[in-house]
Design brief:
With 139 residues, the chain is α+β, with helices and mostly antiparallel strands. 40% of the residues lie in helices and 22% in strands. The chain has a four-stranded antiparallel sheet. Strand 2 and strand 3 form a beta hairpin. The radius of gyration is 19 Å and the shape is globular.
């Protein structure tokens, strides 16, 4: 990945719907170069998808939480693979200290939250978890 790729990713993070022509103009390269670079990054898995950010007030009914996970032994890859299979898992972060992973969860109801919490706790290789509901986002 070179400097143009990094700048392109930065622009896509700001607005993934910006046209290839507009991106090309900003980066001073051809539209074809932009299209080829995006296609290459998608094929390599550097870009794993595109998403929509919505206003926080539209998302206020969602139940959001942070789950800290301790993993038994050398099972990180297996646990991470299993966690990626849950639609409710928005992000998985590796960390140091007491917890091996920090997971961001989001569900449409407390019942859905309870269900996914119970399911994740049974994933083979998870030693323990601690979960906190997110009540408000300040920034």
């Amino acid at each position: 990945m070179d400097e143009i790729d990094r700048r392109l990713l930065s622009l896509l993070r700001q607005d993934a719907r910006e046209s290839a022509a507009a991106l090309a103009k900003k980066l001073k390269v051809s539209r074809g170069t932009i299209q080829n670079r995006i296609a290459r990054m998608l094929a390599r898995g550097d870009i794993q998808g595109f998403t929509v950010r919505i206003r926080p007030d539209l998302d206020s009914a969602r139940v959001r939480a942070i789950m800290c996970v301790a993993i038994e032994g050398e099972r990180s890859a297996k646990v991470t693979r299993a966690l990626r299979g849950y639609a409710e898992v928005e992000r998985i972060h590796t960390t140091n200290g007491r917890w091996d992973l920090v997971i961001e969860l989001a569900t449409d109801s407390l019942e859905g939250f309870s269900r996914v919490l119970d399911e994740i706790r049974t994933v083979e290789g998870i030693a323990s978890t601690e979960t906190s509901l997110l009540l408000a986002t300040l920034k």
